[in-house]
């Protein structure tokens, strides 16, 4: 087989996926981004759209018609500013030039950094793409699981999220 398509919870194993990719066993690899239980909803929707409703599948093999799974909402600076102001959440606006140094200083001070930009991804927030959180202090990982990701304490923390 030249192509591999992965889905289901096992497809969320980044270590195994990286190994498969490095081994160059397949010409093309596609991993369903909501590879756990949530992927069933995507499959049902696609089945209904194409099979039941008869809509054509427009895949040319060159473009990512799923748009990298950035299918969720996105928010402008004005929308974010309005939300923070309305909810009396303290914030500071930084220029693009100021941002890297400020983030580096906060990480150095062992603060937890939450970040998002652009559209949100479809699927679990296991990767550090449009939404991410980071901490330099491994002790903060448990708090991040509980307070930010709302994950059970027994679940391991994503090693890529620890800077």
Q: Secondary structure elements and their pairing?
A:
Elements: E1 3-6, H1 14-23, E2 28-31, H2 39-52, H3 77-86, H4 99-108, E3 113-116, E4 131-134, H5 140-148
Quick structural overview:
The protein has 163 residues and is an alpha+beta fold. It has helices at 14-23, 39-52, 77-86, 99-108, 140-148, and strands at 3-6, 28-31, 113-116, 131-134.
Please describe what this structure looks like.
This protein has 163 residues and is α+β, with helices and mostly antiparallel strands. 33% of the residues lie in helices and 10% in strands. It contains five helices and four strands. It has helices at residues 14-23, 39-52, 77-86, 99-108, 140-148; strands spanning 3-6, 28-31, 113-116, 131-134. A two-stranded parallel sheet has the order 1-2. A two-stranded antiparallel sheet has the order 3-4. β1 (3-6), α1 and β2 form a beta-alpha-beta unit. It is extended.
First-last Cα distance: 38 Å
Number of strands: 4
**Any idea what the shape is?**
extended
Mean pLDDT: 76
Largest sheet report:
2 strands, parallel
* Order of strands across the main sheet: 1-2
Structural class: alpha+beta
Task: List the helices and strands in order.
Answer: EHEHHHEEH
Low-confidence stretches: 157-163
What is the rounded Rg?
19 Å
| Helix content bin | 25-40%
Q: Helical stretch count? A: 5
């Amino acid at each position: 087989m030249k192509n591999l398509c992965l889905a289901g919870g096992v497809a969320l194993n980044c270590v195994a996926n990286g190994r498969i990719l490095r081994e160059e066993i397949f010409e093309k690899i596609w991993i369903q981004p909501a590879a756990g239980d949530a992927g069933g909803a995507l499959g049902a929707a696609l089945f209904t759209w194409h099979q039941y409703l008869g809509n054509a599948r427009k895949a040319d093999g060159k473009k990512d018609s799923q748009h990298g799974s950035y299918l969720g909402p996105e928010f402008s600076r004005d929308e974010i500013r309005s939300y923070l102001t309305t909810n009396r959440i303290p914030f500071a606006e930084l220029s693009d030039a100021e941002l890297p140094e400020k983030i580096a200083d906060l990480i150095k001070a062992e603060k937890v950094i939450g970040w998002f930009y652009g559209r949100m991804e479809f699927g679990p927030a296991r990767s550090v793409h449009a939404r991410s959180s980071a901490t330099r202090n491994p002790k903060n990982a448990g708090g991040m699981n509980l307070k930010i990701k709302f994950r059970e304490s027994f679940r391991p923390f994503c090693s890529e999220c620890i800077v």
